[in-house]
Amino acid sequence: MGAMDLRLRSRRGSLDGVEAITAEAEGFAAGAGVPKIVARRLGLVVEELVTNAVSYGSEGVRDVAVEVTLTLDGDRIGVRISDDAPAFDPFAQAPKELGRTIETREVGGLGLVLVQALAEGIRYRRARGRNVVELDVRIDGVVAQTEGNTQE
Amino acid sequence: MSGKTGITGAEWLGSTLVLTLAGRLDSQTTPVCEAELGEHLARDPKRLVLDLEGLDYVASTGLRLLLLAAKRLKLKGGELRVCGLQANVQEVFEISGFNGLIPVFDTRPQAVSAGDDGPAAGSQNSSL
To answer: Which residues of A are less than 8 Å from B119 in CB distance?
Structure first.
């Protein structure tokens, strides 16, 4: 009760199935009766991390098995995402400066920026040959702190 | 996850092209939308307005597409504008700093007609 396990086996970096896992995650949140925006945040966090694990873990040639566990825990949804790709901590790199004009803004790299803004308690470890990322998505209507300024 | 996703409508108003987006811009739907958007951009609109009222969800891959479109338009002296953002899409814009890059309007008429000399990016931001 209050938990869901999702599995994806990606062939050589294929993103087939990521959309379905995202929908399942949003469905889990909706089933828990959380506000719609929280369900969207959960879906976004899951999509970005699974896409990241598959895209970078596979390097286009390896198969990657990803497991997602969602747990309803009071005022938060716990998310645990693990994969069997080579060791890689997606949060080890310092956040890069976001260009402030259309011309200077680099394309890409926003997935982890979104995850870090929408989730709390993000931690990475390597355990039993798997990359494990754990984090929490708060169940409330508070708008995330933004890049550069805050919203009410 | 119901209904059509991607570009669901296109309307020319002078040299301004208004495209209606619906559904989701995620890792699976964005490539399809990117191809469709490329065809529209090939017609060289001076201004492109994306009406996002029916867009439920944008992931980083969708943001990438919007930024590429904005860059392409800017190179030709044009401008990308967006309107009708849902709360979670607005939130994603705020986090990524896109609301300082791409002019955001509440409604389609505002996006189409505001400041024909072209406002500075971010000067017309809507609030949540």
So the answer is: none
Q: Which of B63, B95, B101 lies at the smallest CB-CB distance from A102?
A: B101
Residue A86 DSSP one-character state: S
Q: Is the whole-model pTM more than 0.90?
A: no
Q: pLDDT tier at A109 (50, 70, 90 boundaries)?
A: confident
Number of Cβ within 10 Å of residue A132's Cβ equals 15
DSSP B100: G
Reading the block at residue B62, the tokens are 């969708």
Number of A–B residue contacts, CB under 8 Å: 96
Return d(Cα A105, Cα B98) in angstroms, integer: 10
Whether complex ipTM tops 0.90: no
> Which CATH topology does B6-113 take?
Transcription Regulator spoIIAA (3.30.750)
d(CA A8, CA A18): 8
Q: Structure tokens of A114?
A: 């979104």
